[in-house]
Specification:
It is a single chain. This protein is about 10% helix and about 45% strand. With about 110 residues, the chain is mainly beta. The strands form 3 sheets. Strands 6, 7, 8 and 9 form a 4-stranded antiparallel sheet that branches. It has a 3-stranded antiparallel sheet with strand order 1-2-5. A two-stranded antiparallel ribbon has the order 3-4. Strand 7 and strand 8 form a beta hairpin. The N and C termini lie far apart (about 50 Å). The relative contact order is 0.18. Pfam families: SHS2_Rpb7-N (PF03876).
Amino acid sequence: MAQFLESKLYSDVEGTCSGQFGYIIAVVSVLDIGKGMVLPGSGQAEFVTRYRAIVFKPFKGEVVDGVVANVNKIIEKNTKVRLKIVGTRVDATEIFAIGTIKEDHLGVIE
């Protein structure tokens, strides 16, 4: 049962975004799987699980490398750039960031 729950955790959590913690890149280890509790009316069970994960949560002032997804007049799609984050907005399941390349050592890379 524990192996199934760990597998379910990996598939359900990795690659998702939590507004509180950021993008969950990978689950590193499972610390604890609590006792299951049967949910009334459905027969499904719920388990409180503690785990460690590698996350990415961008913050204002951070310098990151990325690939252009939206095109404008200056930079083409799929161009690799180094940018400084100037602002972020967090939703329940997404994080939006705006960056600039108008400083030293920022801009197109490669």
